[in-house]
Amino acid sequence: MSAPPKPVPLTTVESTETSESGAQTLTLSVGPQHSGSGHMRLIVEVDGDIIVNVAPDPGYVHRGIEKIIELRNIIKSIPVIERPSIIDASNLNHAWVRSIEEIQGVEVPRRGQYLRTLLNEMNRIMSHLYWLSIYGVFLGHTTMFMWPLGDRELFIDLAEKLTGARITYSYLVPGGVRRDLPPGFAEEAVKRTEYFEKRLKEYDRIFFNNPLFTSRAKGIGVLSKEKAIELGCTGPTLRGSGVDADLRKDEPYAAYPELDFEVSTRPDGDSFSRAMVHMDEMRESCKIIRQIVKKIPSGPIRRKAPIVLPRGVAYGRVESARGECSFYLIGEGGDKPYRARYITGSYRNMAAIPAVLLGNRLADMPTAWWSIDYWPVEADR
Amino acid sequence: MSAQRTAQEEDPVATLAEGLSIWVGKLSDLVKKVVDTGPIRNVINWARMYSLWPVNITTACCSAEFGAASGARHDLERFGVLPIGSLRQSDLIVIEGTITKKMAKRLRMIYDQMALPRYVIAMGDCAMSGGLFHDSYSIVNGAHEFVPVDVYVPGCPPRPEALEQAIIMLQEKIRRSKVYEQG
To answer: How many domains does chain A divide into?
Structure first.
């Protein structure tokens, strides 16, 4: 598979070398200044235009968040926790407060649990829409860049009503949530999700059933079921390979056990199935949001939780938009943790990047690579 | 050394070229003066103001709001801002958030590769002063430490409206500045 990364100079084209078989290969450096890579670099070795070796070079956004958490109060850490995946902030925040509550032994009121789930699902839709818009850019489909970003604003407005911020909410705090539902939220949420489901049909028509996309995505970047499990993939990447694994069902937390939804899986494991898993999840999230605003119980939204982290160890994990996000937290009695290990979905899915790219043509790289939904900021932390 | 000089002095073509280059220098000074004082300046600045093409370099999480600003609701293209892949054709770097030490080298390299005039917008608190991550071991506290910055946008992350404001401010700055002193 991928060779150990050798020092590659910063130029675009490194060298032409002759491999053992006598074939000429060329090492290309894709990124970080590249419309198809984001904040990371892929060192791609091509033979003709077939990719024979890929070595991801992450770390362009490594900000030492695990160390910063050790220096801050557990409440002040919440904004720091959110920054790695700013488009999926509340799910990451949820993993953090879950691990804190596990050590503190605080139970969250049911209304608080429902509100958490509501924001998580809205965030999942926003994150998937952002992913879809960038996918559109990668494939040269400008309509698919504009539409999802426009529809994402529907949910951003809704979240702004609920929390007061566009994308960085810091809404979940140990013991509950910060604010209650504003008046008129339920009607607005139902209206917007119903409108959005109609829009999803149009997405199908213009993009997902379009030969422009299907001919470039079907059978490209295949990740078999065994390989996906072996590499430790998670989230839509794993479900796109036909594995039925979703923490919302397997280890229900917050309000998920009381809600009715389905986990979407696709058996093929190619770029198209991974994309369709994202689409299905957006539909399911719309259903969940409507159920929540209908079923939400009355009562307090927050229970008082101490700012101290008692001595103890906890492992809190949630299903974020890009897969399992988890915290391994060690408390030592102060208001700061002794150590916090922070693992995100993108970090785990990084192992799948060489697996989906090898053997494909260089022109298929954007399709296969971005279908993993790898968000470099989240992976580097 | 002296032999070379005598050869050059004797060569009529070299002498002519030397004389010409003095005149070319004087002429170009004159052109600069004419351009900067006359209406030509306004025409050039007008063209530069409304074709600010940013480079595709994303340093951290503010890129989400940059994406939202380029998208359907806010649409930066109405200000002439069209994200473009090629460095040679771009005029603007929007530094989107935290700059790690690893990224700072690449960012400076990209800045050096761009053609003049070039402008820099530092977006987000992290690009201004380190922001939320000011005490981290792996970041550079502020973009001004390695590139000259034209406009700073505060916020963590700044709203798309703030980015639009920054672009309007940059356009105003270009409108007022002299043609040969930009970038």
So the answer is: 2
Segment A4-60, tens digit of pLDDT: 555 554 444 545 555 555 567 888 888 777 666 667 888 888 888 888 888 888 888
CATH number at residue A187: 1.10.645.10
Rounded distance between C-alpha atoms, residue A136 and residue A367, angstroms: 10
Residues in A closer than 8 angstroms to B87, CB to CB, are 33
**Secondary structure letter of residue A23 according to DSSP:** -
Across the interface, do B71 and A60 touch by the CB < 8 Å criterion?
Answer: no
User: Among residues 33-52 of chain B, which lie with CB inside 8 Å of chain A?
Assistant: none
Please judge whether B64 and A84 are an interchain contact, meaning their C-beta atoms are less than 8 angstroms apart: no
pLDDT at A138: 83
Q: Is residue A55 a contact partner of residue B95, using CB atoms and an 8 Å limit?
A: no
Assigned domain for A45 exists: yes
Q: Say if A17 falls within a structural domain.
A: yes
Task: Report the residue from A64, A79, A377 with minimal CB separation from B136.
Answer: A64
**Does the residue A7 lie in any domain?**
no
- Residue A23 structural domain: 13-57
pLDDT in the model for residue A1: 47
Phi first, then psi: what are they for B92, rounded to 5°? -135, 140
The per-residue pLDDT for range A233-272, each reduced to its tens digit, is 998 999 988 888 888 888 888 888 888 888 888 888 889 9
Distance CA A146, CA A149 (A): 5
